[in-house]
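Amino Acid Chain and Its Fold in Token Form
===========================================
Scope: a single protein chain, as residues and as a discrete description of its fold.
Amino acid sequence: labelled as such and written in the usual single-letter residue code.
Position: the record begins directly beneath this header, with no further notes in between.
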Amino acid sequence: VQLQASGGELVQAGGSLRLSCAASGLTFSSYPVGWFRQAPGKEREFVAAISGSGSTEYYSASVKGRLTISRDNAKNTVYLQINSLKPDDTAVYYCAATTGRPWTTGRTYHDGYWGQGTLVTVSS
């Protein structure tokens, strides 16, 4: 099983970015997928998740309204759209897949499959 996160780059504050998480080696639609981020010197933060079918989404309170998670099961890919980027959004963003429950809780993904992370840097 492999998850590959991509799309991170240097952007200016106020801009937008779409991250991708491409998966292989698993029955993708059976796996809820979560996005996490870890800023320098801070703990990893669970920011969004989506059910296997894509019908249900979850967002943490800290990012709700600026992030949109979606998935295309035909492409085995989950996306994270980040709008109105702030310098505080600077972090390495990771995706993870799990069959555990509840998938709306970050710790459920600890024993799941993880991607390698993609760096988002937001300049002021």
User: Anything to note?
Assistant: Residues 50 and 57 are 4 Å apart (CA to CA). The chain has a mean pLDDT of 97. The chain is about 0% helix and 45% strand.
